[in-house]
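Exercise 7. Given the encoded structure of a 263-residue chain, write a plausible sequence.
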């Protein structure tokens, strides 16, 4: 028993640089307290002491802000960082070395009995506010971005973002250009992740904006050519897209169509 407690505390040091001492972790990490309370309630649940198991689970929820159903199965070295607002359903299964952040829900999508909650394989990380719903399986080493909603199985080592959740390309390079920096902000960086990946939806939107700008420039070339030939074309006041309205912290350079000499 004491070895398991020590293992749990050590898992906090491995994943939270804010942890300073064994005593601090032991007394001030509600995620650990919720897991320890669940172990007790889970044992009682398996011995058919259902009311007592649920009562202990409710007390732990009042104290920690974490609701774990006594029927859920949780592996070793599980870490709930910040803890508050986590909900784990009755038939959820969590493997070893998994990490979830505050506001995560492992919920069901049906009122039918039987398996109705997610299964997390080993080494899965679920970002803050994410919702994993239904009897699905997240493959080993998967990472779910903050606030994503996942309702389908995911392969091993995948990174899932968005609503609904979709898999992003794992072969990502750090952005250098302003356009790529905007893509990153439109896209996703998982909570507690250092690797930067591009959201494929953001890439499509960025491509559409780039295409629209190219069309505008081409039309301006045609208008200039017609004007130089004496053809008077009325210029319409078209609305533009101002990225500054969406990205206040980025030094974007406003580009205006350049007049092109024809002839």
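Solution.
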């Amino acid at each position: 028993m004491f070895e398991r407690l020590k293992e749990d505390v050590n898992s906090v040091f491995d994943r939270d640089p804010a942890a300073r001492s064994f005593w601090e972790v032991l007394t001030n990490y509600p995620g650990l307290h919720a897991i320890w309370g669940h172990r007790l309630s889970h044992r009682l649940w398996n011995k058919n002491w259902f009311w007592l198991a649920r009562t202990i689970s409710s007390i732990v929820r009042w104290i920690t802000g974490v609701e774990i159903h006594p029927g859920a199965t949780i592996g070793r070295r599980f870490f709930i960082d910040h803890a508050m607002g986590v909900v784990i359903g009755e038939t959820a299964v969590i493997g070893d070395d998994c990490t979830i952040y505050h506001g995560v829900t492992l919920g069901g999508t049906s009122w039918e009995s039987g398996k109705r909650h997610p299964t997390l394989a080993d080494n899965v990380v679920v970002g803050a506010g994410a919702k994993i719903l239904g009897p699905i399986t997240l493959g080993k080493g998967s990472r779910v971005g903050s606030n994503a909603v996942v309702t389908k199985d995911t392969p091993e080592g995948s990174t899932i973002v968005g609503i609904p959740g979709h898999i992003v390309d794992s072969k990502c390079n750090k952005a250098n250009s302003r356009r790529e920096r905007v893509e990153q902000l439109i896209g996703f960086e998982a909570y507690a992740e250092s690797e930067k990946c591009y959201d494929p939806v953001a890439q499509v939107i960025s491509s559409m904006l780039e295409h629209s700008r190219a069309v505008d420039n081409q039309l301006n070339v045609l208008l200039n050519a017609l004007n130089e030939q004496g053809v008077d074309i009325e210029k319409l006041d078209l609305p533009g897209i101002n990225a500054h309205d969406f990205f206040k912290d980025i030094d974007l350079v406003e580009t205006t169509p350049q007049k092109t000499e024809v002839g």
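Remark. The mean pLDDT is 79. Students should compare their own answers with the one above.
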